Amino acid sequence: MRLSRGIVCECAGVSACPDGAPNGTCTTQPGGYCFVTVEELYDENGLMVPERTAGCLPPDESGFMQCKSSQVPHQTPKVIQCCEKDLCNRRLHPQLPEPPPDMADAPPAPPPAHTALLAAALGIALLAFFAAFWLLLRRRRRGCKRPPSPPAPATLADVSSGSGSGLPLLVQRTVAKQIQMVESIGKGRYGEVWSARWRGEKVAVKVFFTTEEASWFRETEIYQTVLMRHENILGFIAADIKGTGSWTQMLLITDYHENGSLYDYLQTTVLDPQSFATMAYSIVSGLAHLHMDIFGTKGKPAIAHRDIKSKNILVKRNGQCAIADFGLAVRHVAERNEVDIAPNTRVGTRRYMAPELLDERLDAANFEAFKMADVYSLGLVLWELCRRCAAPGPAPLVEPYALPYHDRVPPDPSFEDMHAVVVARRERPPVPARWGAAGGALGAVAALLAECWHHNPPVRLTALRVKKTLARARSEDAGKLV
Ligand code: ADP
Ligand code: MG
């Protein structure tokens, strides 16, 4: 039965209490509920401390925002209970579920019959996760008082030690609040990237244009995919959305790489064969990890990037690269062999588009097709890298930096420009004889290019195949050095 008046609830914890609420209580709208949530947060020592939040839920959000969601697994372990009598939530103490047994060591298994159910549960969990963001944002818009911040990890090393599904939501918000912007370091089509400080350490903050909420949402969602963390994928730290009534700011906080993008780096740097091999191998390893389906309860879906290019790859201080910019990525739903396409119509960069994208023959329902298009773009990036690798010798020879098709199309090529070159004339970037003659990693990569950017997608190599071939070339090189 719904009351015609609101009910009084205990309110305590992050974002739950409205301004001026008399000592720790709030009153719901008619038909509203009292709630209590308990969420896993971590203190400075990385120890789990359950965080209790209590408050009022308006009627429209009660069903949506998870009064029933305790049954589904959350990205951040969390339970919620609701009740409908004055101050009834004082007596609610929901218990966090026991952590599931660790499956990390289990060998990859083919998808079992119940994975469809699991996928559905995970889908609901993701929905609840973003519903929580939405709810917090709405509360702020209504002028909620912000209580003290929940504990955040002490260092970035604590952040990156996780399994890859990201920090608990409230900890991410805390990190986002503690950021000090330093300077603008890059502009893409979808946002501006800043270097910033968090507790004395440098981080990168991507601030999305207000019109690009879908890109922020998608990129955040992809970074929080289970097992996404990899040394050749840009390290995710936190995402936050904040706003007043009239504007919204969407942030994505990641590791900072002072060398910038591969595109920037190659302008001024000539690579010796060893750093060339390290970079090529790391890019291919990052892509192979992204493309890999890892089955099992804690598995990772295969992900296709859809915007592989040198501006979306960063150069780390150790000489390896990390793939970034996941605003366009799609995930594989293995159980139904489907593509999970986000409601985001952004398309990739024309210069790097595979022929089947340029002539619109890519079957968007076939996930493998997106991986094949990524490998085409990978071929072009490897070509950019090859040009900057100097073969050893008294007068090392390199080609100047160039974008793929730099001498075939104008600076901002149209679809038609690209179509004429890549599809109609089937041209590909030139491969100088010196690359093959150099042998070693340069020779090995040069020999792979044609099979990466082949016109016929199924003929192209997989990222994993490229990775294995480069691994062999590197170990042969190492053998020669001994
Ligand atoms: P967009 O979606 O707008 O293209 P990106 O994520 O590709 O945004 O970033 C735009 C540019 O900002 C990159 O090409 C790179 O030069 C720079 N950049 C992005 N992230 C970082 C980072 N973590 N460290 C250093 N530079 C970065
Ligand atoms: Mg980009």
Keywords:
Phosphorylase Kinase, domain 1, CD59, alpha+beta, binds magnesium ion, 3-stranded antiparallel β-sheet, 13 helices, Transferase(Phosphotransferase), domain 1, 15 strands, binds adenosine-5'-diphosphate, 3 domains, 482 residues, 33% helix, 5-stranded antiparallel β-sheet, single chain
Task: Give a description of the structure.
The structure is a single chain. The chain is an alpha+beta fold and 482 residues long. The chain has three domains: 8-91, CD59; 160-255, Phosphorylase Kinase, domain 1 (2-Layer Sandwich), CATH 3.30.200; 262-481, Transferase(Phosphotransferase), domain 1 (Orthogonal Bundle). 33% of the residues lie in helices and 18% in strands. It contains 13 helices and 15 strands. It has helices spanning 59-64, 115-141, 156-160, 169-177, 213-223, 262-268, 273-291, 355-358, 367-387, 415-424, 433-438, 440-452, 463-481, and strands spanning 8-10, 25-27, 33-42, 48-57, 78-83, 180-187, 191-198, 201-208, 236-243, 248-255, 303-304, 313-315, 321-323, 330-333, 338-340. The strands form five sheets. The chain has a five-stranded antiparallel beta sheet with strand order 6-7-8-10-9. A three-stranded antiparallel beta sheet has the order 4-3-5. Strands 11-14-15 form a three-stranded antiparallel beta sheet. Strand 9 (236-243) and strand 10 (248-255) form a beta hairpin. Helix 7 packs parallel to helix 12, helix 7 runs antiparallel to helix 13 (463-481) and helix 9 packs antiparallel against helix 12. The longest helix is centred in the N-terminal third of the chain and has 27 residues, at 115-141. The protein starts with 7 loop residues before the first strand and ends with a helix. Adenosine-5'-diphosphate binds at residues 185-186, 188-191, 193, 204, 206, 234, 254-257, 260-261, 264, 311-312, 314, 324-325, 327. Residues 188, 311-312, 325 line the site of magnesium ion.
